[in-house]
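Hi everyone, sorry if this is the wrong subforum. Our group has a chain we'd like a structural model of before ordering constructs, and none of us has done structure prediction before. Sequence below.
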Amino acid sequence: MRRSSLVVIGLLSLSLHSLADDWPQWLGPRRDDIWRETGIVERFSSNGPPVLWRAEIKGGYSGPAVVGNRLFLLDRPIIAKPEVAQTDEPSGPSKNERVLCLDASNGTKIWEHAYPCSYNIGYPAGPRTTPTVADGRVFSLGAMGDLLCLRADNGQVIWSHNFPSEYRLSKPPVWGWAAHPLLDGDRLICLVGGTNSAVVAFQKETGREVWRALTAVEIGYAPPVIYSVHGQRQLIIWHPDAISGLDPESGKVLWSRSYPIGGEPKRPEVTIAMPRLQGDRLFLTCFYQGSMLLQLGPEGAKILWNRRSTSDELMNDGLHTVLGTPVFMDGFIYGVCGFGELRCLDAKTGDRKWETYDATGGHKAFFGNAFLTMHQDRTFLWNDQGELIIARLRPEGYQEISRAKLLEPLEKTRGRVVTWCHPAYANRCAYVHNGKELLCVSLAAS
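Answer:
Right subforum, don't worry. Here is the predicted structure as tokens:
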């Protein structure tokens, strides 16, 4: 009897463990911002979630990647100038970016790889992208276009590229390289820039270029994503001049549509949020141009609706997202607008169902933001004030369940103090930082 019980317990343990997920790239294992682990807390205690460890890091906006018992992060050891500084002073090797590897169970440093990197971009606090980890390798992209492939066990460089020098780029994007690389099979797909190289695929083992495609005045900041549409895999690339679908294996352009519709891009354009798909409908949103829904078919993309702003100040129509990628589910779209309004849109028409400032600080705030991650029937929101929120997003409204203050925001920008760093969810924990301190908090149900 006792032996049978032990067998049952063992099988249950294996079952629970099999439901656990790493967070090996931006937006999680499937790049869809859904956290699929089980055994997660329903609400926080009055003291908030337990802090398991804290670790000192340096500046930047890079989100962590977590694989097994290791955490990977990009940061920048130099202290950036306050507010929205546009450049660094000319400098030598002391101005570095680095890739960090920490023990995910206690925060101790396992290795670091630092390299010279002088900035000439806006918001120079540090790197933007989340590392991608697979097959014992770490792929990182710095803010000045340094693409690295490192060994995950010791940080040794396997191969590297410098986009400005290799692709003859006269200047970086205004806010640096920020589109998180996408690993697809044996190809690492990146937004690069230049003539016929807005997007480039590299062989993940060697770094050899596999294909290149598209030309754009600006590459923007929206991460590449692959969706299956009517049985066909399509690589979606959105830059400030067009939205395109490509064959991810060859780079062949399947379709392309000029963007924005009904106007010219406002240079520099803030195409940041990753396009979202439900069924065959693709949703785009950005600060200046508002939001648009396309229907993808064999002959390309058809516009279903296009909600553009009528005023740079009001932006009262549609969704004008700055930083966070929205959620598209069950025929409704949830995202944060440019002044901190969490909004729900009816995907059929683009009409607004509701809005609230509760998730981003309680009042209108320029570039107010929260990153949304789905978990079962709830959403975890990590806002720019260092608060983690559990809520339900429904067409009927915003239903907050629990809230905890985890970190103080430190970056001064646009008259506010914020943290704009993506969270990671793995090992039944949340990993968050503010450019100075990285926290691991337990979200396991007791």
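For your construct planning: Residues 1-18, 82-93 have pLDDT under 50 and may be disordered. The longest strand covers residues 397-405.
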